[in-house]
Design brief:
Blueprint (H helix, E strand, L loop, with lengths): L9 E3 L23 E3 L4 H7 L3 E12 L3 E4 L6 E8 L2 E5 L5 E3 L3 E5 L5 E4 L7 E2 L5 E5 L2 E7 L4 E11 L2 H8 L5 E4 L6 H17 L4 H23 L6 H6 L2 H12 L7 H7 L4 H12 L3 H19 L4 H7 L5 H12 L3 H7 L31
Parallel strand pairs: 3-12, 4-10
Antiparallel strand pairs: 1-2, 3-13, 4-9, 5-8, 5-13, 6-7, 6-9, 8-14, 11-12
Helix pairs in contact: 1-6, 3-4, 7-8, 9-11, 10-11
């Protein structure tokens, strides 16, 4: 059957598809391209496309029972854990405890402080009070415990900088736990872990990029599993993305934030009347369409401010504002701080992740049968 093409959907996007800021020494704009991509028929999938991680940190933690580790909160970060041998209990405040076994993958999406322990009730040690072996600038090993039954965990801290990703992450529950052995995607998830193992062990050219993208895949799969199984994912912004017409309109705004959108023009794009579109958008998204457009522009501007050195006046013009002053007022109204404060804080952005974990560290794993050991 011939493939059907829709030429009218090809739009130049102001949203940039980029790899991690820290993959090499280049400035973001030198490895970031404005891409012309056909408009997605799956707006939720497009939002997941922007879940690209930066500030990635991996640590291999070797524990012996009894043990407990208290991890601090990390601002604007997501944390994940993979148990490679033994088992542990993951506890996050205001969430149900989860027992993690080899191959299980758990996310703590909001960067909340939490605890890993051999069992409930064990006194915990604080992460940064414990000695760590720095194998290289990308690889640390933590050892802690009372000498009993061993457990090994790979822990990671990541950050998503794109506004679509940030919006999605705020909607996630406090904990997402995936059993990679009972998942329908078990085979490829296990293969993904094996490939991470090879890249970590060999450290070939480009290996760091591969490892980072594979970690992207695991995190996205955990989020997809939650979206597919939790009724809460069918409401609000996520539910709106899955609506054929409103999701299409949201994707258009994401792709072309500088376009002079009106309620009428968005309604025309999705073949709805102005009044029906306005009512349905507000019902599903929780705010009026033009309020969403304005707020989205400010989040796009925030990304630009972090990545680029262009003058504020140029950014204001790119987003359709007649003056820098009008742009600055809108920015502060939606985000609560002036755009200039981002520029002043740029040199200190990495301080949001403490110095001992700013480097990338990786651990290799060999997958066992269920209940066995992921050998490091």
């Amino acid at each position: 059957m011939a493939r059907v093409t829709e030429p009218n959907n090809a739009q130049k996007s102001l949203i940039r598809a980029r790899s991690s800021n820290s993959l090499d020494g280049r400035a973001p704009r030198t490895h970031t391209a404005v891409m012309k991509i056909p408009l997605a028929h799956d707006p939720l999938g497009e939002a997941l496309h922007f879940l690209r991680m930066s500030g990635v940190f991996y640590c291999r933690s070797e524990f012996t029972a009894p043990w407990a580790l208290d991890l601090p909160a990390f601002e604007d970060c997501l944390m994940f854990h993979v148990v490679t041998s033994g088992q542990c209990v993951l506890g996050v405040k205001s969430a149900e405890d989860h027992v993690l076994r080899p191959g299980d993958f758990a996310l703590v999406p909001h960067g909340a402080g939490h605890r890993l322990a051999s069992e409930p009730g064990v006194g915990g040690a604080k992460l940064f009070d414990l000695p760590r072996e720095q194998v290289s600038d990308r690889y640390e090993i933590l050892r802690h415990g009372g000498g009993g039954t061993p457990t090994t965990v790979i822990c990671g801290v990541v950050r998503f900088d794109h506004p679509a990703a940030a919006r999605l992450v705020t909607l996630l529950p406090r904990v997402i736990a995936v059993d990679a052995w009972s998942s329908p995607e078990a085979e490829w998830m296990q293969s993904t872990l094996r490939l991470i193992a090879i890249e970590a062990r060999e450290l070939r050219p480009g290996g760091e990029t591969v490892i980072t993208r594979l970690a992207d895949i695991l995190v996205i799969q955990a989020i997809r599993s939650w979206i597919a199984s939790d009724p809460a994912a069918q409401t609000g912004w996520l539910g709106a993305l899955q609506d054929k017409q409103i999701g299409h309109a949201i994707a258009l705004v994401h792709r072309e934030p500088a376009r002079p959108w009106t309620v009428e023009s968005l309604a025309n794009e999705v073949a709805m009347s102005r009044s029906a579109f306005a009512a349905r958008f507000t019902e599903l998204v929780g705010e009026p369409a033009m309020h969403y457009v304005a707020r989205w522009r400010m989040h796009v501007a925030l990304t630009w401010l972090r990545e680029e050195d262009a003058p504020l006046s140029a950014m204001a013009s790119r987003l359709g504002y007649e003056s820098e002053a009008a742009f600055s007022r809108a920015f502060k109204r939606f985000l609560g701080f002036p755009p200039g404060s981002i520029r002043r804080a740029k040199p200190d952005q990495s301080a949001r992740i403490p110095a001992p974990i700013r480097s990338r560290v990786v651990a290799s794993v060999d997958l066992p049968e269920r209940g066995g050991r992921l050998r490091l």
